[in-house]
Design goal:
Barwin-like endoglucanases; Transferase, Pyrimidine Nucleoside Phosphorylase, Chain A, domain 3; 6-stranded mixed barrel; 4-stranded antiparallel β-sheet; 18 helices; 18 strands; about 20% strand
Length: about 500
């Protein structure tokens, strides 16, 4: 221990804080010379376990000579209420100096990035310090060396899954569009003997993440061991990445980025490739949707990112192909977990073949070509043939069963009976379907927290529509959320109806 140490009695709070913090009475804090945001080293007198925690200070929540712990700190130390711990102030960690260095626009070394990532992973940095780091990266950027080093740092500070099978392949979309292409691509790919242990995310800003939609069909909280077992037996899984802690620092960085919608280009590349490397992926296809409604607005940015993905991939022993796709219109007509899951199964069942099906086959085809299972420009045709043969549907049923699910047919999926249909007030042509607009409506209706809520479009962009025909339907969790979604949709129409008759004059 460094400096003055004090023994304090533990008071536990059954609350998940999402970080390792401790709460000190202001009297004890003054005696230790501590301020909010400072760090302390804590050692349990009973277990001998140690941790570093961020300090919060109170006048009433914790009494003098006591220290408050939330669940994360309690678990790390293995302590209970009334047990004693030794507490001492710790000096400023090196990472803070490195963060300041980046704020000045200076280049960070591999060692410096390693320390920052490790400290984020171990909760040694405060929220303010971590936010300062991501803000600096957003403002000053990473060069190629820093991007590569950040990727390696994220890989080295997370868990890895080692498979006894090969080749392992993967796909990732930078995002900003709806549609669960992953749930179509995985069964297509593993139908041909490739292995695709897909770990996916839950929604942050969308109406559904892949994990949210897949959870409608089967459990997605799957352990390392089960992922390996299922992948070996049937070729792949569709699981929630948060359940396996592949890159804990990256997950924490994403939470930091979200409030201000910070997506530094170098960090995005490092984040994606680190997680692919963590599951042993050899061949990876990156989907870069471009458009007003997508995260990437400019094709020039997409091309630059594509080249960086390929180059960094080579440096970490991975073959990467980046595919620039259109993000100007919805990828499928559904928004919300149950609706998107149903839509996916309908494609696999051969009930529809639309832009989402085509995009999924394009990306699956790119994987086939990259892995040497199809010649140049022949992957798409191969993927379409597999999809239409029913092989992909059979593989999806195997995945659902292996993950402990029971819903393997589109007819078994139910969504909220509480709904509102929006109909065309005039005849015309549907134009400018706004992904963000429909996403907002779906979230106001209760998605993704309520899996049965969302929005279903009845028309595609460019379709003709008659007066009185349905354009889209909102499915809501309850009457209050339905009213909220309706009011927003009326005030912010998520589409444009181009009418044949513009005006009438007498």
């Amino acid at each position: 221990m460094s400096g003055f140490s004090q023994s304090l009695k533990v008071k536990t709070f059954n609350i998940d804080s999402g970080k390792v913090i401790c709460v000190l009475n202001e009297i004890d804090a003054k005696e230790l010379g501590l301020f909010p945001g400072d760090r302390v080293e804590i050692k349990s007198k009973r277990t001998g376990k140690k941790c570093v925690a961020i300090v919060d200070i109170t006048t009433s929540m914790v009494a003098e000579n006591n220290i408050g712990f939330f669940n994360e700190t309690t678990e790390l130390l293995g302590v209970k209420t009334h047990q004693l711990v030794d507490v001492s102030a710790t000096p400023m960690i090196n990472s803070v100096d490195y963060i300041k260095k980046k704020m000045r626009g200076e280049k960070l070394s591999r060692k410096e990035l390693d320390e920052i990532v490790k400290d984020i992973s171990d909760n040694r940095l405060s929220d303010i310090e971590s936010s300062a780091f991501m803000s600096a990266v957003y403002m000053k950027g990473f060069d190629m060396d820093e991007t590569a080093d950040m990727t390696k740092a994220l890989i080295d500070n997370g868990q890895k899954i080692s498979f006894d099978v090969s080749p392992v392949v993967d796909k990732h979309s930078v995002g900003g569009v709806n549609g669960r292409a992953t749930m179509i691509i995985v069964p297509i790919i593993i139908s041909e003997g490739l292995y695709m242990p897909k770990t996916s995310s839950r929604s942050i800003t969308s109406a559904a993440g892949t994990a949210d939609a897949m959870e409608v069909l089967a459990p997605v909280n799957i352990s390392f061991e089960k992922i390996k077992k299922i992948t070996k037996e049937i070729g792949g899984v569709i699981s929630w990445g948060g359940s396996v802690d592949l890159a804990p620092a990256d997950d924490k960085i994403i939470k930091i980025e979200h409030p201000l919608a910070l997506d530094p280009e170098g960090q995005v590349i490092a984040s994606v490739l680190a997680k692919k490397a963590s599951v042993g992926s050899k061949f990876v296809v990156i989907d870069l949707p471009v458009g007003v409604e997508a995260k990437i607005k400019d094709r020039k940015i997409a091309v630059r990112m594509a080249r960086k993905f390929v180059e960094i991939g080579k440096e970490i022993g991975m073959e990467v192909e980046a595919v620039i796709t259109s993000g100007d219109e919805p990828s499928g007509l559904a928004f919300g977990p149950a609706l998107e899951a149903k839509y996916v199964l309908e494609i696999l069942e051969g009930k529809r073949f639309d832009n989402l099906a085509k995009k999924s086959c394009e990306l699956a085809g790119a994987i086939f070509e990259l892995a040497g299972l199809a010649g140049t420009n022949k992957g798409y045709k191969k993927a379409v043939a597999i999809l239409k043969s029913g092989k992909a549907l059979q593989k999806m049923k195997e995945i659902i069963k292996a993950q402990g699910g029971k819903i393997d047919s589109s007819t078994k999926i139910i969504y909220s009976p509480l709904n509102q249909v929006f109909k065309a007030e005039e005849a015309g042509i549907i134009q400018d379907l706004k992904v963000h607009g429909f996403t907002k409506v779906a979230r106001l209706a209760g998605a993704p927290a309520n899996k049965k809520a969302g929005v279903l479009l009845h028309k595609e962009e460019g379709d003709k529509i008659k007066k009185g025909e349905p354009i889209y339907t909102i499915f809501a969790e309850n009457k209050i959320k339905l009213a909220s979604a309706i009011n927003y949709a009326k005030g912010n129409p998520p589409f444009v109806l181009k009418t044949v008759v513009l005006t009438k004059v007498r």
